[in-house]
Amino acid sequence: MKRLISSAILAVFLLAPASVQAQPAGQTSTESKSLLQLLFPPSDNYNKFRRSDKSPIKRKVISFKENHAQGTIIIDTSDRRLYHVTGKGKATVYGIGVGREGFTWQGQNKITRKAEWPGWTPPQVMRDRVKRQEGRVLPAYMEGGPDNPLGARAMYIGSTIYRIHGTNQPWTIGQAMSSGCIRMANEDVVDLYNKVGVGTKVIVRQ
Prior knowledge:
The protein is an alpha/beta fold. It has helices at residues 2-15, 29-32, 34-39, 124-134, 186-193, and strands spanning 60-63, 73-76, 81-87, 90-95, 98-99, 107-116, 153-157, 163-167, 176-178, 182-185, 201-205. A hairpin with a 5-residue loop joins strand 7 and strand 8. The protein is globular. The relative contact order is 0.19.
């Protein structure tokens, strides 16, 4: 068996381009890694689960003919898109993550507070649920920062427990995975945060 494995590895070396069998002085490591990538290719989830601030759904400006005042935020949980009305029949559309089944909601409210790198105080009902269903103990409070689930920015909706907030888990964008909050990739939430103020109208629809 050992002889068979050795023969297979030797065959890969012989078939590999000469440039990856040895690394001349001054050569970058990109080519030298090619052989390792052939022998041990990364899993399908390698790039999917790397931390990133970028959204897999690129934001863009679109024609938007609905009759809403400039500045209004419309959140469509079915399409998993957030529309920021910019006026003149246009809106910027962002990909978002929404509440999973049983945690969706709809209504109309306003942004009542904004925060950069917000701290997170998970509601007691959430802490109890996670402990009961998953066996995990959530902290009573978590300081803001790159590891915080609320990401780089948060916009608080009315007096509810819901927020439009960032995330460093971009694979959740376009998915229904939250407890009702609206998730945006950090790059997108910073972009929106800089364009809206306290008092901005928010419409959430299914």
